[in-house]
Design a protein that fits this description.
Mean pLDDT: 74
Oligomer: single chain
Structural class: mainly alpha
Helix content: over 70%
Largest sheet: none
Radius of gyration: 23 Å
Length: 252
């Protein structure tokens, strides 16, 4: 029996105008809809744990604010208005904490599957907090008293943090999920600079180096290695996180 032409599968034409990146995105882009929902109990537990962790972190950061304010290296933004100077520093520090916790949850596949709406709301909160912290951080960086290198280090961090987060937000709005993931990894690597600063500040004086040397170096070391490692990771892995070299070996 001969097969009729109508029964033959029709080959889909390849869009010659599509870029290689577009075709790769179409092949690898994960579904937008969530693959199922957790039970109401699990959902409630997740929300309670996330809220509790955020609250505890804010308490710890707030408790440490007097030390941060006392040992800051910045000149007053407004010499005759100390309350304003303190408020800017407090806003910068407090808004830097929630992105740490939200970022960890945002990379969780289970959390995204639980509720995409929740993922979008927390992602928006992540971006808003970083935008506020980056802008106030840039203002504080310009008033740093440890020299031009220190001012440049923290200023570049604030600009890079703001830019990568904005790109993560824009790609999410455009549903470019692969690009969104890449920009989120870059943004979160800079968010982790919040954790890198404190150990350097505590241990650097023990090296015997004067503050004029280790402090400007700290303003770069707290974020440049993070961003470099993020770029290496992105170039070495696929969307799933698997090493790209392993896929090439299997294909060969």
């Amino acid at each position: 029996m001969t097969t009729t032409a109508a029964a033959q599968p029709i080959a889909q034409p390849v869009d010659a105008t599509a870029s290689v990146g577009d075709r790769a995105r179409d092949r690898k882009q994960p579904p937008v809809s969530a693959a199922g929902l957790w039970s109401s109990f699990q959902t409630s537990a997740f929300i309670v744990l996330a809220a509790g962790a955020t609250f505890v972190s804010l308490l710890i950061m707030t408790a440490g604010l007097p030390m941060i304010i006392t040992h800051r290296a910045g000149a007053p933004l407004w010499p005759d208005f100390q309350a304003f100077n303190t408020a800017v520093l407090v806003v910068h520090v407090v808004t830097a904490v929630p992105p740490l916790l939200i970022g960890f949850f945002s990379f969780s596949t289970a959390a995204r599957r639980m509720s995409l709406k929740w993922h979008r709301w927390t992602g928006t909160a992540y971006c808003v907090c970083i935008w506020i912290s980056a802008v106030t951080g840039l203002a504080l960086a310009t008033a740093n008293t440890q020299g031009v290198l220190a001012q440049a280090g923290f200023s570049c961090l604030a600009i890079a943090w703001f830019t990568t987060t904005t790109m993560a937000y824009r790609t999410a709005r455009a549903k470019q999920l692969i690009a969104h993931r890449q920009w989120m990894i870059r943004s979160f690597s800079l968010t982790l600079a919040v954790l890198a600063v404190r150990p350097i500040v505590h241990f650097a004086p023990g090296t015997g180096l004067p503050i004029e040397i280790w402090y400007p170096a700290m303003t770069w070391l707290c974020w440049v290695p993070n961003l470099a490692m993020a770029e290496i990771y992105l170039r070495a892995t696929l969307y799933s996180g698997k090493l790209a070299v392993l896929k090439r070996k299997r294909a060969a």
